[in-house]
Amino acid sequence: MVSKRAEQFLVELRMYLISKGKNDKEINEITEELEVHLMEAEAEGKDVSHIIGYSPKNYMKSIGESMKTDYRELAGLVPLMILLISAYLSIGPAIEGTFSVSRGTIWFALIITTVSFLGYGLFLFKIMPRFFQSRWGYVFIFCTSLIVTGLMVVFMFWYRAQNFEAVFVATPVQNNLIIILCAVIFIGAALYTKTWFTILIPLFLSMGPIATRLLPEETNNDPLYITITILVFLLASAVAIGIFIFQSKKDQKKI
Amino acid sequence: MADTTQMLKGILDGCLLSIIKEGEIYGYELAAKLESYGFHSFSEGTIYPLLLRMQKEGLVSTTLRKSTAGPKRKYYSLTEKGELELEQFINRWTQLSSSVNNVLNKRGN
Q1: In the structure, what pLDDT confidence band is assigned to residue A217 with cuts at 50, 70 and 90?
Q2: Cα distance from A197 to chain B (closest Cα, Å)?
Q3: Chain B: closest CA distance from residue A3 (Å)
Q4: Residues A166-182 pLDDT 10s
Q5: Hey, is the C-beta of B59 within 8 angstroms of any chain A C-beta?
Q6: 3-class SS of residue A232
Q7: A92 and A209 in contact (C-beta within 8 Å)?
Q8: Residue B86 has pLDDT above 90, yes or no
């Protein structure tokens, strides 16, 4: 196991190389190689600065310069992100059977896409490396997700209240086709990025629209059921975060 | 230290190739070997950007092997191209060191 400082350096290096568009496989190789080195060196009482010098930034730069930029991977990621955001925005209305496109929708999608790209970049490359490995990291991630989700909901309400004039309204068959297309995008993205979140998040987001479509309106609008649902979701989120923290601590002990 | 690092640029490549020629070796061992030969005044991590470049240029090949703890170790061995490069380096170094020695000892033709 490496020291916290060494681990922090490895995380920062990984983020730096990702931000420079280096190949995933090569990033894994170099960070693992350096981890082995830091582990063995620290076991012999050496300090991180003995290995990477006194300017981690310069060292990261020299590593980055020796690796090729994977333009193919980068070129694939941008359209994938755009497809994913479009699918996230479309699946809810399609499940509810109310998918439509207006000028407002296009502007809304453009704003969400830009904000997501900026937010994702800022969070991944500037904020996350600083908080990684500290307890504040989990609090920070939780609060950020809460604020972002809250803002999205507020924005969604505002958007719905605008009643933009639709230029395209999907038929029931088209709504079902959109659901299938979104599912294909989510599964494809999960396979491409080798992560589950592109399937889990839409499943989570779809619960509301599915409930709207399947539950009778009087049940759906009953304050008691709404309160119970919110409490269940909060409890489920707390349990999920608990499991995540427990699992990461267990993994750390294994190393 | 910075001055020594500047002087080492270009020379370190040849030294790494020469050590790798002795047999398959992984990064940490390589740094330790360099230290045992008297290279104390540079950061050990300096070797990794060089190794990455040499790998890209096809001078060394790599294999991943399980280690006793932690991630797998990446072992380096010399390719034919690497051997050729080492030979050329030795020739260049012999000429250069002899010229530098001549200058320092004032032994002109």
Answers
A1: confident
A2: 25
A3: 13
A4: 888 889 899 999 999 99
A5: no
A6: helix
A7: yes
A8: yes
How far lies A117's CA from each of A50, A88, A91, A122, in Å? Answer: 37, 14, 20, 9
Least Cα separation, residue B45 to chain A (angstroms): 5
- pTM equals 0.64
Q: Give me chain A's average pLDDT, please.
A: 80
Q: What is the mean pLDDT of residues A234-243?
A: 83
pLDDT value at residue A255: 45
- Specify the long-range contacts of residues A175-178, CB closer than 8 Å, at least 24 apart: A175/A94, A175/A95, A175/A97, A175/A98, A175/A99, A176/A94, A178/A90, A178/A91, A178/A94, A178/A99
Best probe of the A interface among B6, B28, B47, by most A CBs < 10 A, is: B28
Residue bearing tokens 């499943």: A203
Separation CA A178–CA B99 (nearest Å): 75
From the list A17, A9, A16, the residue with the least C-alpha distance to A54 is A9
pLDDT digits (tens, 9 = 90+) for B56-65: 999 999 999 8
What ipTM is given for this predicted complex? Answer: 0.85
Spatial separation of the C-alpha atoms in residues B52 and A26, rounded to whole Å: 10
Residue pair A189/A123 in contact by the 8 Å Cβ criterion:
no
- Predicted confidence at residue A137, as pLDDT, reads 66
Q: How far apart are CA A205 and CA A87, in angstroms?
A: 11
Best to test chain A binding among B34, B52, B68 (most A CBs inside 10 Å): B52
Q: Which residues contact B35 (CB under 8 A, 6 or more apart)?
A: B44
Structure confidence at residue B77 as a pLDDT band (50, 70, 90):
very high
A33: amino acid identity, one letter:
E
Report the relative pairing of strands A166-169 and B60-65 from DSSP bridges.
Answer: unpaired
